[in-house]
Amino acid sequence: MKIQSVIPNNRKRAFQVKASKKLFQLPYSKVEPQPSAIDPIARVFVDKELGSEGFTYVLESGKEGTVHGEQVLEYNQDPHYLRDTLLYKLTMEAQKRVDASPLSKREIVRRLGTSATQFYRLLDQTNYRKSVDQLLSLLHVLDCDVDLLVRTKTSSGKAA
């Protein structure tokens, strides 16, 4: 996620982060070091050293903090970020299962009814153009059951 701009909002005690034509909020309480009335933000900027995928802020005391765009997306529960996270986790599990499987890769490709190239794309954790159902098919071929667990969040924001 390329960050276009970031503005500290001391009234809301949050950073306003503009990226991908959306405006996100990230509370000061979610960063370290935390800005405060005693040690406010002196400077904030989109960090070019992070490829504009994060921002850095400097407090009046000289303490410095850096926030990556993924932290902002995770806090805001962005659906695209959550999908990509799910794809990543499923891909990593599929990689482990393929390595541990008694089936040859050629046999897995045959059972999937796909090409070797497509099979290797499924196992590439940096490829986010694949679908969840393709990974589910692969895991099914590897004799895995995949269950989706939905839980109610607790008031602290963590799953119960």
How would you describe the overall organization of this protein?
The chain is of the alpha+beta class. It folds into two domains: 73 residues; 63 residues. 34% of the residues lie in helices and 22% in strands. The chain has a three-stranded antiparallel beta sheet with strand order 1-2-3, covered by helices on one side. A three-stranded antiparallel beta sheet has the order 4-5-6. A hairpin with a 7-residue loop joins strand 4 and strand 5. The mean pLDDT is 93.
* Mean pLDDT over all positions: 93
The shape, in one word, is elongated
Give the percentage of residues in beta strands: 15-25%
Spatial order of the strands in the main sheet? 1-2-3
Helical content band:
25-40%
**Biggest sheet character:** 3 strands, antiparallel
The figure for the number of domains is 2
| Low-pLDDT segments | none
- Helix/sheet category: alpha+beta
Overall number of strands:
6
Order of helices and strands: EEEEEEHHHHH
The number of helical elements comes to 5
Radius of gyration: 21 Å
End-to-end separation: 30 Å
Outline the fold blueprint.
Layout: E1 3-9, E2 14-19, E3 22-27, E4 41-46, E5 54-59, E6 64-68, H1 69-75, H2 79-100, H3 105-112, H4 116-122, H5 132-141
Antiparallel strand pairs: 1-2, 2-3, 4-5, 5-6
Helix pairs in contact: 2-5
